């Protein structure tokens, strides 16, 4: 039940964002929903649980979006996936919070094996690949979690320039942008 309550604001958030974007688009023209260099990050801190949901164009993380067919592309994808599988190295959580990774899930068409030559595969023909990651941490001392520093993420993946963040924490819900120049979120 608690996870459902935690997820509810995130479930409703796209409706509010879509409505605001639609109103903005009518006034100022439209921005593409798939924007290179920009990702989205949903952050929820509840009791001893910190959850991060990250979504961004593969271009931000591996430098391309096509199926990895060459050895060099496959190595690039494997290296990015390995980095994403180590969230404690990407997200600078305060040591005093004593956070441990409880769950993580990565998904992207790029992580699927390349189709056999000549095989028809809709995923291989997809031109705008995204990479999604979900992380759940249990933190012994959430009072020590005053900030979330994304500077390591930006250094590891320099193709990512900013995140549009939706944050739910002890001080309520907020929408902020973080960038490589201003990489810190405040709970």
What does this structure look like?
Keywords: Signal. The protein has 187 residues and is an alpha+beta fold. The protein has one domain. It is 32% helix and 32% strand. It has six helices and eight strands. It has a six-stranded mixed sheet. 28% of the residues are buried.
Please give the structural blueprint:
Layout: H1 2-28, E1 38-46, E2 49-57, H2 58-62, H3 71-84, H4 87-90, E3 99-107, H5 122-125, E4 130-139, E5 147-149, H6 151-156, E6 162-169, E7 172-179, E8 184-186
Parallel strand pairs: 1-6
Antiparallel strand pairs: 1-2, 2-4, 3-4, 5-8, 6-7
As for the number of domains, it is 1
- Uncertain spans, ≥5 residues at pLDDT below 50? 8-32, 116-126
Class by SSE composition: alpha+beta
In angstroms, what is the radius of gyration? 18 Å
Mean pLDDT: 81
Give the overall shape.
globular
Features:
187 residues; alpha+beta; 32% strand; globular
Summarize the structure.
InterPro entries: ZrgA-like. The chain has helices at residues 2-28, 58-62, 71-84, 87-90, 122-125, 151-156; strands at residues 38-46, 49-57, 99-107, 130-139, 147-149, 162-169, 172-179, 184-186.
